[in-house]
Specification:
alpha+beta, Lambda Exonuclease, Chain A, six-stranded mixed sheet, three-stranded antiparallel sheet, 11 strands
């Protein structure tokens, strides 16, 4: 478990540990190189923001190199070949994000709370006051900012709730919290979470019940699930998910895995070509629940056969939007429009040429199609 400098016999539970324990009681957070990189970046951002605050300036670009070097030097577990990447990211942060000192309350602010069976805690990257109230009074609205150096799309719902609850419980005057995730490597801005006091009461009580139950059953067997990718035991645990067990730990492993993926991709292409040659003179078959062979689409698609201007004139005479021409392939929305264009001789419905593929075999769908064809032939 994660340790803090708190004199207590009770276990100390951070957000990351809590989220993992609720999924698997045997979860153990992995303290790898990627985590160290994130810690170094957070260390720089905190030092840079405090430097701006001490100088009373929104930017201090001349201090970036020094502060980045100091943050890098005091962080253990780093891959030294990533130094330039780290420095570039620090420079990007300083150039793109003013300190916004007018609303700043805290940087790297640690919150702890005794919940009886454990000490729960979190470290908030930054807190801003957003109610524009009297600085001598407790804030009623704040924004919590969390810096992310990862590029993958991740779920931050649990973190947003955990941080927000601790803020509500330790700041009695607080009425509303905005939790904003900042993806430092991308320009896109995820939608912020907005919580008002009382919104998370039921979630918090349920979460604490779950955590206490996990701590009371520490010898329970491991359970494979969403916590596996971040667990230090993922390569040795028999219950780890296949994806987690296959996550590379070093750049060499990642390169080897990528090379294997390329080989598998090429092998799949070769097998598709061989199967296409085999089925070129045979009827399609149902194999392992899949229809395989040279298959035509199950439904025809609509094709505009007239010149664009003829279609436009047709629509204009009926006071219809030109967007209907663009969306004619949308079956659900524009089926009626397709029928009108077909009646006017401007389009038709046709089947695409059969091509080698495989798709799920759905006997009920085939039976409905057969009955429909029989009814049409009987008429």
């Amino acid at each position: 478990m994660t340790a803090l400098a708190i004199e207590s016999a009770k276990p100390v539970i951070r957000r990351s540990l809590a989220e993992g324990l609720l999924s698997c009681v045997q979860f153990q957070r992995e303290d790898g190189e990627q985590l160290a990189f994130g810690q170094a970046l957070h260390s720089f951002i905190a030092a840079y923001t405090l430097q701006c605050q001490a100088a009373g300036e929104e930017t201090r670009l001349t201090d970036v190199s020094r502060l980045a070097s100091e943050a890098w030097a005091r962080t253990h577990g780093l891959l030294q070949s990533r130094w330039q990447e780290f420095l570039d990211l620090c420079q990007h942060f300083a150039e793109s994000r003013p300190a916004q000192l007018g609303t700043l309350m805290h940087v790297e602010h640690t919150i702890t709370l005794d919940v009886g069976f454990a000490i729960v805690t979190c470290t908030v990257d930054r807190i801003d006051r957003t109610d524009y109230g009297d600085p001598d009074e407790e804030p009623r609205r704040i924004q919590t900012s969390d810096w992310k150096s990862e590029r993958a799309e991740m779920d931050h719902d649990f973190q947003a709730r955990w941080y927000t609850v601790l803020e509500f419980l330790t700041m009695p005057a607080l009425e509303e919290v905005v939790f904003a995730v900042h993806a430092l490597r991308d320009w896109w801005v995820p939608e912020p979470y907005i919580f008002r006091r009382g919104d998370l009461d039921h979630w918090w009580s349920t979460t604490l019940q779950g955590l206490k139950a996990r701590l009371d059953a520490q010898n329970a067997p491991a359970v494979g699930g969403p916590a596996c990718p971040g667990c230090a035991k993922r390569t040795s645990c028999s219950q780890a998910t296949a994806v987690a067990a296959g996550i590379p730990e070093t750049q060499d492993q990642a390169d080897e895995l990528f090379q294997e993926a390329l080989r598998l991709e090429e092998a799949l292409a070769v097998r598709k070509q061989g199967l296409a040659h085999f089925y070129s003179g045979r009827r399609e078959q149902v194999v392992y629940g899949k229809e395989v062979g040279f298959l035509a689409p199950r439904e025809p698609h609509f094709v505009v056969t007239a010149e664009p201007m003829k279609v436009v004139k047709f629509l204009n005479r009926r006071h219809m939007s030109g967007e209907d021409v663009i969306k004619v392939d949308n079956e659900k929305v524009n089926r009626g429009m397709q029928e009108k264009l077909a009646e006017a001789g401007l389009g038709r419905r046709e089947y695409s040429k059969p091509a080698f593929r495989w798709r799920n075999h759905v006997p009920a769908r085939d039976e409905r199609k057969r009955k429909k064809q029989e009814e049409e032939s009987a008429q």
